């Protein structure tokens, strides 16, 4: 099964690399980074580059699509090539998914119209403007529609483990979790708006600028 992860300038690194680390460990899955053109694409802060191994028009029937987020999504909301590709491949995917603000691109392609979905907390208003209905959940599934969205950044790992369960089986998903030693025990409990105090929320907003 082929998993396509589209890259674009100013993507958020963990949005792509988190799911990649889970999915590439499964022998049944072949992960490919795709983009408008082959070659290096730099992340949102410009510090990290990943390589697109194929153009969008070279990957026409992936089994799974994982769309990462990042500030670069904002300039792609009217990008006909990418949005047409998302609509076209979704006709054949087993699952079309997003991490963080990657859901904005699914929404812009019309794939989330009227559906509940999630995204990074800083993009809720824009997601709803694009036709989705935001819910504050880490992973939101619409399995009959073959759509899965995940919230900000790190939630892509959770979603990828769920995808392994759906595509292969539960034991394999648990094995993948063990392989990456994903056993979160953070030193703080401020990983969602509901848990973070006002001062932490203000500091986070300042760091996003």
UniProtKB/TrEMBL annotation:
Q: Name one Pfam family in it.
A: DJ-1_PfpI
- Give the top-rank taxon of the lineage listed in the UniProt record for this protein: Bacteria
Q: Write the protein's name.
A: DJ-1/PfpI domain-containing protein
Q: Which residues form the signal peptide?
A: none
Q: Which residues form the DJ-1/PfpI domain?
A: 2-165
A GO biological process this protein is involved in? regulation of DNA-templated transcription
